[in-house]
Amino acid sequence: MDSDGKMRFWADTEFEIKKGFRRSAHALFLMGGDVLGLKP
């Protein structure tokens, strides 16, 4: 794989990770809010 393709691959991967992280962080926040009685 050339360096340009590698950069593009990592950019896509990082984007997917951040997207997934935001989704799970939001779910954890909602669950944690329920547990702690901190409903938004």
Helix-strand layout with pairing:
Elements lengths: L2 H34 L4
Question: What are its keywords?
Answer:
85% helix, 40 residues, mainly alpha
End-to-end gap:
46 Å
Q: Uncertain segments of ≥5 residues (pLDDT<50)? A: none
What's the total helix number?
1
Name the shape in a single word. Answer: rod-shaped
Count of beta strands: 0
Into which percentage range does the β-strand content fall? under 5%
**Which structural category do the helix and sheet elements fall into?**
mainly alpha
Order of helices and strands: H
The helix content, as a percent range, equals over 70%
Using the CA coordinates, give the radius of gyration: 16 Å
Average pLDDT, all residues:
82
Tell me about the largest β-sheet.
none
Question: Could you provide a short overview of the structure?
Answer:
The chain has 40 residues and is mainly α. It contains one helix and no strands. The longest helix is centred in the middle third of the chain and has 34 residues.
